[in-house]
Amino acid sequence: MAFILTSKNIRNPRISLPGFILAGIFLGVLISRSPNLAAVIGFSLPLLLFIFTKPAWGIITVVFLTASFLHELPYLSIGAISFHISDGILLFLISTVIVRAFAVPGASFVRTPLDIPLLGFLFAVFVGLLIAVFVQDIPFNIAMRQVRILAYYSIFFLVTHCINDLKKIKMLINSLFILAALVIAALILQSFSGGTIPFISGYMAGNVIMDSEFVRVGLSGLPLVLICMMAILSVLLMSGPSSPKYILLAEFLFLSAGMVLTFTRSYWIVMLLCFSFILRYTPFARRLKILFSMILLVPVSYFLLIALVPAKTFDSYGLALTKRFMTLFQGRDTLKIDTVADRVTEYDYALQEIKSSPIYGIGLRNDYRPAFYGPDDQLTWYIHNSYLWVLKDMGFLGLIPFMIFYIGSLVRGFKKWNSVENQFLRAIVLGNTIGILGLMLFALQGGVLVNSWNTSVYGCVIGLNEVIYKLKAVE
């Protein structure tokens, strides 16, 4: 019998009684040795107890802390290791799943076809850490930064073990939609405030396009926004009439407006490609209906912007967006010769290192090129391609399971979405799959799949699809 994590199991004395005894002993020893650390842990116990009984909220909390718009929360340092709050929640939930799978009679792990590839990739991450620290003399803390990011892929296993009914599935989906809307709200606020809001993270830069001034803002949660946009659009085009279409349509337009305000042409291109993929699966009559609804809502949105945004700011951004968009059709400006040459140089250096160690790679966060971007270039381990990044750092030991995990998720999504009986969930599976496909294309020119805290989002969304496949359809 597959084991599913539920709050009822807290009553199991085989787990709760020994656990509380050990926790009491540990806390007593800790108070005598480190009162400050004991206070932090004592404060955390109610939170951990809540997450123990409501693990779905723990998953949502991890995604919010890692892949939204917040500055990083304070670290808890223990020797050479630093813990983020989300790290603690992730480790706690994974430990709980493992202990319960062995301690509860008749329990076992929930299995999916993507488990082994993901475990193989995480094993390659561990090997990459060992090579970095013990062979390449990379400081442990430096290499662990990459491990922490990639470890969030393991949230996939939490979703497959903890999300086990239609209510929890819909709660997770709606929570992701809300988080995506919060990311875009933060981006818009930061854009029009000139980057003055302190608790919103991300890069901010003043830009000028043909005398049109604007503030360009990038937040860590943009991949989440892209996936949610595709899921919402899929629901709009494919789900039944009972869905709250105008609420979802309004959110879709809101998320689209925020993505446009990133001024990132790569995202614009990926968005258009994803739209075209979804339309391929959509009946023609549905396309016309959604198009008509957009025609009605776009003018409303336009007049709201005029009313809420100062005229000078509105005109400046409008002109900059228009000119930025036109560069998509001017190949020489879109693909700047200098940028392409720099990327090719990066790839040449990376391929040299890959040839020297094709099986295991050169280790996590190991430099592979000189600082040719200028005197301030310190990211000599960064490469603008997620797949070359994995191959460089972890060799084929990491790249093969990494690709099997992602391609396997796409194959299963495109194969199984139409067999899901629940119309809403069927649309979600297709939208999630196309969103992941878009990010895989985006990863050809950046480290979005391996150097972004959104690894928690990717694991969560792919795990969500797997749960939907297993769920008995409920209309």
Give a verbal description of the structure.
With 475 residues, the chain is mostly helical. The protein has one domain. The chain is 67% helix and 4% strand. It has 18 helices and 4 strands. The strands form 2 sheets. It has a two-stranded antiparallel ribbon. The protein has a two-stranded antiparallel sheet with strand order 3-4. Strand 3 and strand 4 form a beta hairpin. Helix 7 runs parallel beside helix 18. The protein is globular and about 60 Å long.
Short description:
The protein has 475 residues and is mainly alpha-helical. Helices cover 67% and strands 4% of the residues.
Describe how the helices and strands are arranged.
Layout: H1 13-33, H2 35-53, H3 55-66, E1 76-78, E2 81-83, H4 85-103, H5 115-135, H6 140-151, H7 155-162, H8 166-192, E3 203-209, E4 212-218, H9 222-238, H10 245-260, H11 265-280, H12 284-308, H13 311-326, H14 331-334, H15 337-356, H16 386-416, H17 423-442, H18 455-470
Antiparallel strand pairs: 1-2, 3-4
Helix pairs in contact: 1-2, 2-3, 3-4, 3-8, 4-7, 5-6, 5-16, 7-18, 8-9, 8-10, 9-10, 9-11, 9-17, 10-12, 11-17, 15-16, 16-17, 17-18
